[in-house]
Structures are given as C-alpha cells and as structure tokens.
C-alpha cells in the first residue's frame, strides 16, 4: 500500500503511488459525450488502424483523468490539495473491441508511478 501525502517527505522524482485501471470501449463513448471529442480514432477500429494506430485508443485526457484519481486519492481524497497536475503521454492506451472473444480482456491502463515534479512536493504523474 502506498503512503499518503501526509505520511512522508518527498523528493523530486520519487514514486508516490501506483494503480491499474481497466478501460472499456463503453468508457470511451461516455467520455466522448462528456468532452465533445468524437474523433473516430476513439471509436472506429477502421479509422484508427487506417491512420497507423494499433487499434481504437483511449482519449489522452481520459487517461490523464484516471491518473488524477490516483493523485487525489494519494492526497487524502481532497482535490483541493492538488495545486497543479500534468502528464506526459508516452504511448497510446489501445482498447479491445466490445465484441472481443471471452479470452481477451479489456486493456489495462497503468499509472506506473507518480513522481513528484517539483521540490515543494506537488505530485505530478508520469503516465
């Protein structure tokens, strides 16, 4: 179990939390409706593959929001304790089709560790 913001003094680059999320295509549909981002690479396999992606990918800002949950939880669940938040997108989160075979499972988006980005301890994920 990870320590919380109150449990430790932080150093720049220190990992503070780790969590895994399952991402389904239905999540992408809901996010598209909320954000207004209906880019077909987030719902059409044909379009995504046609532009060189390995398949339908999750919205970057959706994956950032998942990382934000980890930061908020690490800060005791109080979003007011998060002074700023930023990410670096290093690879797309490819999401399996809704009609995938039972042997395949939803993709897992992993927050590999949330390093501290500044010397005063404001956490920022490196997802």
What report would you give on this structure?
The chain has three helices and two strands. It is an alpha+beta fold and 127 residues long. The protein has a domain at 22-97: Hotdog Thioesterase (Thiol Ester Dehydrase, Chain A, Roll), CATH 3.10.129.10. The two termini are 19 Å apart. The relative contact order is 0.26.
Helix-strand blueprint:
Layout: E1 19-23, H1 25-35, H2 45-50, H3 60-74, E2 107-111
The helix content, as a percent range, equals 25-40%
Mean pLDDT across all amino acids: 75
Widest β-sheet, arrangement of strands? 1-2
* Number of extended strands: 2
Low-confidence stretches: 101-112, 115-127
State Rg: 16 Å
Can you name the CATH architecture of the domain at 22-97?
Roll
Helix and strand pattern:
EHHHE
CATH T-level topology of the domain at 22-97: Thiol Ester Dehydrase, Chain A
Measured distance between first and last alpha carbons: 19 Å
What general form does the structure show? elongated
Per CATH, the superfamily of the domain at 22-97 is Hotdog Thioesterase
The largest sheet is: 2 strands, antiparallel
Percentage beta strand: 5-15%
Question: How would you sum up this structure in a few lines?
Answer:
This protein is α+β, with helices and mostly antiparallel strands and 127 residues long. The chain has 3 helices and 2 strands; from the N terminus they run E-H-H-H-E.
Please tag this protein with its features.
about 25% helix; 2 strands; disordered C terminus; fatty acid synthase activity; Dehydratase; MaoC-like_dom; Thiol Ester Dehydrase, Chain A; about 130 residues; HotDog_dom_sf; alpha+beta; two-stranded antiparallel sheet; 3 helices; about 10% strand; Fatty_acid_synthase
